[in-house]
Amino acid sequence: MHLIKSLEKNTGYGKELASGISEKEAKRRINEYGPNIIIGKRNISAFKILLDQFSDFMVIVLLVSTAISAFMGEMTEAFTIIAIVIINAIMGFIQEYRTEKTLEALKELTAPTAKVIRDNKHLTIPAEEIVPGDLILLEAGDRVPADSVLLEAVNLQVDESLLTGESVPVEKYAGSDIRRGSSLPEKKHSVYMGTVVTMGRASAIVYATGMNTEMGKIAHMIHSIEDEQTPLQKKLDHLGKLIVYACLTICAIVSVTGILRGENLFTMLLSGISLAVAAVPEGLPAIVTISLALGVQRMMKRNALVRKLPAVETLGCANVICSDKTGTLTENKMTVRKVYTGGTIFQINDSKAFSKMTNLSRTEDLLKTALEIGALCNNSSISSSMERNGIIKKFTKKKNINFSAADISGDPTEIALLVAASKYGITESGLKEKYMRIGEIPFDSERKCMSVICRNNNGESFVFTKGAPDIIINKCTSIYMAGGIIPLTSEFKKRILNQNEEMAREALRVLGVAYKKYNSRGNKQEEVENNLIFVGLIGMIDPPRKEAAEAVMKCKTAGIKTVMITGDHKTTATTIAQELGIYKKGDLVLTGSELDDMDDIKLQKIVENVSVYARVTPAHKLMIVRALKRKGLIVAMTGDGVNDAPAIKESDIGISMGLTGTDVTKEASSMILMDDNFATIVAAIEEGRVIYSNIRKFIRYLLACNIGEVLTMFLGMLLGLPIPLMPIQVLWVNLVTDGLPAMALGLEPAEKDIMMRSPRSSKSSIFSDGLVFLIILRGILLGLSTLAVFVSIIYLTRDIVLARTSAFMTLVLTQLTHVFECKSERKTIFEIPWFNNIYLVLAVMCSLIMMLVVVYIPPLQVLFKTTALSVNEWLIVGGFTFLGPVVSSFIRFRQR
Known about the structure:
By secondary structure, the chain is an alpha+beta fold. It is built from 35 helices and 27 strands. The strands form 4 sheets. Strands 10, 11, 12, 15, 16, 17, 18, 19, 20 and 21 form a 10-stranded mixed sheet that branches. Helix 3 crosses helix 5 (75-99). It is elongated and about 125 Å long. It starts with a helix and ends with a helix. 48% of the residues are buried.
């Protein structure tokens, strides 16, 4: 009665606990509270998403360029620009449309049906019809339909990993205190929507449904997160506007200058427009897109699926990776690490099944007994096919064997005991031949132990017990040592408890195992489980992935900090983090309760010194990511559970697990690790850095070329010379040099030291580290070389067509030579490998052939106003073409 009154006081419901609410009352409450579903944002129509893709400033500029090109009769140019715009719009549409599905995946995690009691009748109803006050029934295998407080619980354990990140099922108890202010792991009397019952049975009264549940709070957090542009998108947007304004201004000056000098009005307007079309790098968005797309293909080969193209580049500048522990840095399966028996500690490692840590003799029988008890006092199983295939027998000869989900079934702790026994050669089939189970006392949360009664082939009966070490030791009167069975003295008890504490400090989950001979005269439970013989302690843990430590070290080398964020205990998290190299002495470790006592400003001050966060909630993860971002850091967040989704969406790049990740997390993420391997992130970082480096290379190339083109026309006008290049020639240069060569730069392989460099700052300009100097220097040399050839040929031949053709060819050749200089920002053209990118070589050859065609084929000579060049002209063109790289290399050598 006290419990019912407390429930009524804490939840507002409880009057009809015995018989459940009536159908009439249920209908009234569903009208009041709404259906028990996760509600997504108001859906945006696909057409609206598509229209939004054309509102970008650069896209508008491209459309204007299209109109100009069409007006000039350059339909090829117009169609090219239109194709670029459409491709970009389609890719943006796909990304946004898929993002809209994030909250839809949440609905799949709620239970489709639920068992309730209404009007004293047991019913199965759709979970969306559950209302606050409903009396629900739960048993092993059920998914909890709504947040509820337990009215009755029998050996109840619930897997809450999708909300808390804990790898071990949580024990739950009946009670009235729902403790709304405490963290999820501390709420032992409540169960939550979407979690799964792994053991036992229960009845509970619903106190929150739909968007008021813990799952609904996550949905609210996802709603509140606004999508931000990536660092690359911001930089390119700013760059695009800067280029457009500068080029249009200069082109207007060129046109006005020519008109004031008496040039033909139409010709100068056409020249200005042509130069504007050529100067604006309309190919830049397409080349960026193609470069990112090619990077995505390379990532697929390295087990990373990129959902959003800019994600690869963004990861390349990440300086913090916030990683979930369970299943990401660890294997997400309990594994026995140590067995303490007879005063000896045995440790499991990779090279051998077990190795002694101390040199005491005659302890192997004790170890075998301890493992046999763990395997017999057990309700899990390993597939018999493994035994038939001889896998178990090979455990003592080969390295550790990985069990798949198809091979095992049952409680993770019990599975770990079976696997450990198997490694020692103790098989289920062998135990069944030796023992027959004749009774069981199930695990009870109050007793904290489990016992089985077995009879061997000689007709002898035994009790085998496992449970909490302090409970087990109090049930024992003897201890099994190497010399035999002796009394369990207070000194022995002290040693055992000290060892238990030491193993617990190592974040091991410890079980005690004991046994005794049994006779049927004592049938009472307390008589069955007393006067036991203590055998040993078995310590287990969810171990780190072998490759994770190496990946963390590579991140450190690359200047990237790895932070562990988990729902597990502080000790467990710190131990794993230290083993992986994430935590070092002096680093801070914060818990969820400590975060609750902090405001955003206080966390922001210390966030860079924290390596481990333990016992955290989804709100805490979001808080941590935002604090890191406010420090100006580029944050990558990995995870697999629903609890990770809000932080993943908030981070600069969200990374979900492909094998164990929920649909919610995958939809919220930018990238999915198909092998759930933390080490794959390192490969993604390298790929991201390569892509950004390549983007800088073709920005350097395009802008230097455009400066050269504009400078040629501008200086020609200022010096009173005839127009150096005709409008159609300017457009042809743009087509020949801005297309294939620039795209081929996006295929440049990684430079050897790419992972030895520190991450770039998110605030740094895309022109940082001297890129502006390189662009301006080569742009000036390109323009001066072209103009010098034009002036030289006019002076020598007085032939304006020949002079323009020579300048035309010089401008193209200097640009095709410059593309090789752009292969490296740190080396000159004389130091780089010329042929390690075959695509670039082929692109340059293709562009050169296109130029020769318009110079030497008569019909095209008429169209492009060119004439064939003789050897003398070629010598002048060649000399000025290679003068630029020589001067540039000399200047850069002097700067070193």
